Amino acid sequence: GQRQMCIRDRVIVAYSGTDFQLLFDGSDLGLDTEDINAFSLLDDGSILMSFTSSATIVSLGEVDDSDIVRFVPVGLGDQTMGVFEHYFDGSDVGLSTGNEDIDSLEVLSDGTILVSTKGTFDVPGAVGFAEDLIAFSPTQLGATTTGTWSLHFDGSDVELSDVASGEEPGHRGGHPGVDPDEAPVVEVRLVSYTHLRAHETDS
Predict the structure, then answer these.
(1) Contact 39, 26 (CB under 8 A)
(2) 72 pairs with which residues across the strands?
(3) Of the given ranges (78-87, 116-125, 151-160), which has the lowest mean pLDDT?
(4) Alpha carbon distance 11, 22 (integer Å)
(5) Rounded distance, CA 52 to CA 41, Å?
(6) 190 pLDDT tier (thresholds 50, 70, 90)
(7) Cα radius of gyration (the chain)
(8) pLDDT at position 37
(9) What pTM did the predictor assign?
(10) DSSP collapsed to 3 states, the chain
(11) Residue 170 φ then ψ, to 5°
């Protein structure tokens, strides 16, 4: 027979290569309308995440779409339990516009946080576009965040085009020195779980 699993935007699933497994279910924690658009699994078992828009989390209050929260689990899967903590406050370090919504993230072994943004960004130490990656080297994390930015990856170097906020996927971006008619049509987006319908066939 077949088992069907419908995955919503506040759910994270793990894929082993053959099977899907429910890892995190935000609805167990009161995330009824808040959609995750970026996450990273840390070595200690906690999960970093950011949301598509401002979100209200019971233990934290309102968090912005340029913020990152950390979920420390007590249980995962069908009965997700644990606590949320402030991890990164984007407004403290220059992420303040609608285009600067975090839409992917990763933490390196040295603690550097890599993020991309929904559109153009302008932070102290780095200016760029949606296809770029910026690196944040923290000196303090949490509700008060301090540190420095640097450009980590310039998408224009490998001919990735910018998809600006509000533009349709496939739009050719406007990098200085790149002819829009010759630029490749590329969209960079984290796609891990959004609107995923996973079908598993039982043996």
Answers:
(1) no
(2) 83
(3) 151-160
(4) 8
(5) 18
(6) very low
(7) 18
(8) 86
(9) 0.75
(10) CEEEEECCCCEEEEECCCCEEEEEEHHHHCCCCCCEEEEEECCCCCEEEEECCCEEECCCEEECCCCEEEEEEEECHHHCEEEEEEEECHHHHCCCCHHHCEEEEEECCCCCEEEEECCCEEECCEEECCCCEEEEEEEECCCCCEEEEEEEECHHHHCCCCCCCCCCCCCCCCCCCCCCCCCCCCCCCCCCCCCCEEEEECC
(11) 90, -5
> 136: which 2 tokens?
């944040």
Q: Which residue has the higher pLDDT, 57 or 3?
A: 57
Q: Report residue 144 as tokens.
A: 């008060």
> What six digits make up the tokens of 171?
């739009």
Cα–Cα distance, 131 to 187 (Å, whole number): 8
